[in-house]
Design a protein that fits this description.
Blueprint lengths: L18 H22 L5 E6 L7 H17 L2 E6 L14 H15 L6 E5 L4 H5 L1 H5 L4 H5 L2 H8 L9 H15 L4 E4 L4 H18 L10 E4 L27 H9 L17 H14 L3 H8 L3 H28 L2 H29 L5
Parallel strand pairs: 1-2, 2-3, 4-5
Helix pairs in contact: 3-13, 8-9, 10-13, 11-12, 11-13
Length: 370
């Protein structure tokens, strides 16, 4: 599947931006326009976002998309948050400690400011109509298109399974069902999720063309990129739960300090922000800057020639100060498990009502009401 716009280069021999750069640049430009529209009329937007319950959420999640959810919710955008428990099985044979991981996600959501009175938090498995949408949606994409999805390729490369299951290839279409069941028109994502969102847009467009009879049954949702779509982990690769290189939101101050002490840097003593040639140092500077509300260049100037030890100290202090109120709220919510379960139960009920209505509309469009 071609997920980026095509350009005609008048000088075919001249180097140009990569397709990935073009796609990300287009999404960033579109996101800037969307931000203005959100401020003007937040009520015209509905977002769908979520996470797989495979472990603790981390700073990459937070600055990539979690803080955007809360910001959008607080602006008045209608928000749906899916806990994708079925999708846990895409890259592993068994969903270990699923109940515990689901509750941990809800704790993280509440701690960062997700308000169950304004945001619908629900699980895949509790919304049968949502999952029924995946079958007609699968008929709208080809095997070749799914095979070409770069995010699927990356997930396969890091899969915990000895043999990749068929569920991995349906993953993007399942995400399309997540987004389209509630007719979300905006999805906060990091840049690595842009190919998945393009599948959703393709499914929506093809369903409308094939079954809409001149009516747009589904919107084609836009990506809303954050200002920091990608943070590196402590080993210098993408921060990820599965790679053991992440700093969890639930991590204590001492654990955070230990993890950052072992973070990869480089041999140059003078600290500068240069993502192209110093990615590990620059990622740490970006993390500190995000926590401080400053630019990475300003943080780098403060550290100067003090070296990597001073950089890590600055990042550790910044992260721990930023996370302190989140950790406090998390501890408070953890003492009321009944509230966690009620939050999820009520969210599931709301999501089921929306999904049932959408499935009925799909069946009507497909002439499959019996």
């Amino acid at each position: 599947m071609n997920t980026t716009p095509q350009t005609v280069d008048p000088d075919a021999s001249a180097p140009g931006p990569s397709a990935d750069t073009l796609g990300t640049s287009t999404a960033q430009a579109r996101s800037a326009v969307l931000e203005e529209q959100i401020l003007e009329d937040p009520g015209r937007f509905r977002i769908l976002t979520g996470d797989r319950p495979t472990g603790r959420l981390h700073l990459g999640h937070y600055f990539g998309t979690l803080h955007n959810r809360v910001r959008l919710q607080d602006l008045g955008v209608e928000t749906f948050v899916v806990i994708a428990d079925y999708q846990v099985l895409t890259d592993r044979d068994v969903a270990d400690n699923l109940t515990g991981h689901v509750e941990e996600l809800v704790l993280d959501y509440l701690a960062i400011g997700v308000d169950p009175a304004r945001s619908t938090v629900f699980t895949h498995s509790a919304v049968p109509a949502l999952n029924q949408l995946m079958l007609p949606f699968l008929s709208l994409v080809s095997v070749a298109e799914l095979n070409r999805n770069p995010t699927v390729k990356d997930e396969i490369a890091h899969s915990r399974q000895s043999a990749v299951s068929g569920l991995m290839f349906t993953y993007p279409v399942h995400q399309a069902a997540d987004i389209l069941f509630c007719k979300a028109n905006l999805v906060p994502v990091g840049q690595d999720q842009l190919p998945h969102l393009e599948v959703t847009r393709t499914v929506a467009r093809r369903f409308n063309d094939r079954y809409g009879n001149g009516t747009a049954v589904f919107p084609q949702p836009d990506a809303l990129l954050s200002s920091a779509p990608l943070l590196l982990g402590t080993d210098g690769t993408k921060m990820s739960k599965s790679r053991g290189n992440a700093i969890a939101l639930a991590a204590g101050a001492d654990e955070t300090a230990r993890l950052l002490k072992g973070a990869k840097t480089d041999s140059e003593r003078h600290i500068t922000y240069d993502p192209a040639t110093r990615p590990e140092v620059s990622s740490l500077l970006l993390l500190a800057a995000l926590c401080q509300g400053r630019t990475p260049q300003q943080v780098a100037e403060d550290i100067g020639a003090a070296g990597a030890a001073a950089l890590k100290k600055t990042v550790t202090e910044s992260v721990n100060e930023y996370l302190a109120p989140i950790r406090t709220r998390r501890t408070e919510y953890a003492q009321d498990r009944a509230f966690l379960r009620r939050t999820l139960r009520e969210g599931n009920e709301r999501a089921r009502a929306v999904a049932d209505a959408t499935l009925a509309e799909v069946r009507a469009a497909m002439n499959s009401r019996y």
